[in-house]
């Protein structure tokens, strides 16, 4: 029922454009969202500037028409302006110099493995690092970081991150009940993520690395809008089916104004034990070409490697287990690139 109402609201709202940006009011444009509770509709329009007057007619029409949808009891429309958005970026509070979201279009491309090893590599560079596992659909950071106990609460009722390998770890999996919902609604995601920021005793960090769920859903948008992301890194494997979804991720970050620090290609090639040659199983240089097309930095290629998978399974990240190995060197090189690019940006 609510889903039907929602889709009717958006069908109607898309007919109107923001007079200032010329963008249709469409969730795809990230300028409208709606919450429905027992027939009571709350619509949020994200508009630009403070000149509320130019939106008066649209508000009236939208309200009248939504009120006529069968099942709707009341309609409330709130405008959020750019100014308010800036305020809301501080909603998720954390004392971190840099917040980086690790994203992927698809699951299983190695996003969590990257988040874990990047965290270790940054820590090796002397940074104070926090790692937040926000993958609501399959939190795997605790296993990969060798963390098995659950966090305790301090006297302020804040969760204390578990420290392993010098990194402060927190996982959304810690606060989920065993019977966690398979379908997450926007407000639930918002609440859980907020708890991961405001309800955790993170202390002072140089980097908070966030392992996002795959795709382009509410969690990504919530984080982009409510926390001060310094940038995002998109992980993809080189074949077309993965790149198609990675493109959606890149476009989403561009739309919501989150800087893309770069693309990383995972499972780029396999080095055969017998011939010692590179085999490009999932096609060659797919992500490099994509980075070029989108004019975003290409950060590096990580091979498909049995040891890397074993290290993840046993909670010993590659950068810990074999810090001088070829793969760890790639992670370290990427960490240095990111650190340098953020330092440069800050000094501009
Ligand atoms: P995602 O977070 O994108 O779902 P994961 O990081 O959980 O992906 O990785 C999925 C599986 O692939 C895990 O078992 C992981 O150990 C393995 N894996 C990731 N990257 C590599 C790689 N470069 N070589 C071998 N195995 C990898």
Report on the structure:
The structure is a single chain. This protein is an alpha/beta fold and 348 residues long. It has 2 domains: 2-84, 2-Layer Sandwich (GMP Synthetase, Chain A, domain 3), CATH 3.30.300.130; 96-342, 3-Layer(aba) Sandwich (Rossmann fold), CATH 3.40.50. It is built from 12 helices and 12 strands. It has helices at residues 2-13, 56-67, 82-88, 111-124, 141-144, 186-198, 218-226, 240-255, 286-294, 306-313, 318-321, 326-347, and strands spanning 32-37, 40-47, 74-81, 95-104, 129-133, 162-164, 167-171, 204-211, 231-236, 260-271, 278-279, 298-304. The strands form 2 sheets. Strands 4, 5, 6, 7, 8, 9, 10, 11 and 12 form a 9-stranded mixed sheet that branches. Strands 1-2-3 form a 3-stranded mixed sheet. Helix 6 packs across helix 7 and helix 8 (240-255) runs parallel beside helix 9. The chain is globular and about 70 Å long. The structure holds adenosine-5'-diphosphate.
């Amino acid at each position: 029922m609510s889903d039907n109402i929602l889709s009717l609201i958006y069908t109607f709202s898309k007919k109107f454009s923001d007079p200032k940006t010329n963008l249709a009011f469409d969730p795809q444009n990230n300028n409208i969202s709606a919450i429905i509770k027992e027939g009571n509709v709350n619509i949020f329009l994200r508009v630009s500037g403070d000149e509320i007057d130019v939106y008066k007619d649209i508000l009236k029409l939208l309200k009248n028409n939504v009120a006529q949808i069968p099942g709707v009891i009341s309609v409330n429309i709130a405008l959020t302006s750019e100014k308010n958005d800036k305020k809301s970026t501080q909603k998720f509070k954390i004392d971190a110099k840099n917040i980086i979201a690790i994203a992927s279009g698809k699951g299983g491309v190695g996003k969590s493995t990257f988040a874990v090893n990047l965290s270790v590599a940054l820590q090796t560079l002397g940074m104070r690092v926090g790692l937040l596992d926000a993958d609501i659909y399959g939190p795997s950071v605790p296993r990969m970081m060798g963390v098995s106990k659950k966090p305790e609460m301090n006297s302020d009722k804040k969760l204390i991150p578990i420290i392993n390998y010098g990194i402060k770890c927190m996982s959304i999996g810690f606060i989920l009940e065993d019977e966690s919902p398979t379908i997450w609604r926007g407000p639930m995601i918002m609440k859980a993520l907020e708890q991961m920021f405001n309800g955790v005793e993170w202390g002072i960090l140089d980097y908070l690395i966030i392992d996002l769920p795959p795709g382009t859903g509410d969690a990504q948008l919530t984080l982009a809008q409510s926390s001060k992301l310094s940038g995002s890194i998109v992980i993809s494997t080189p074949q077309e089916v993965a790149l198609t979804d990675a493109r959606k991720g890149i476009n989403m970050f561009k739309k919501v104004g989150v800087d893309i620090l770069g693309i990383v290609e995972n499972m780029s090639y396999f080095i055969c034990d017998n011939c010692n040659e590179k085999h490009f199983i999932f096609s060659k240089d797919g992500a490099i070409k994509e980075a070029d097309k989108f004019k975003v930095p290409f950060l590096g290629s990580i091979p498909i490697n049995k040891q890397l998978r074993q290290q993840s399974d046993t909670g010993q990240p590659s950068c810990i287990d074999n810090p001088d190995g070829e793969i760890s060197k790639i992670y370290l090189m990427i960490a240095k690139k990111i650190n340098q690019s953020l330092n440069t940006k800050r000094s501009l």
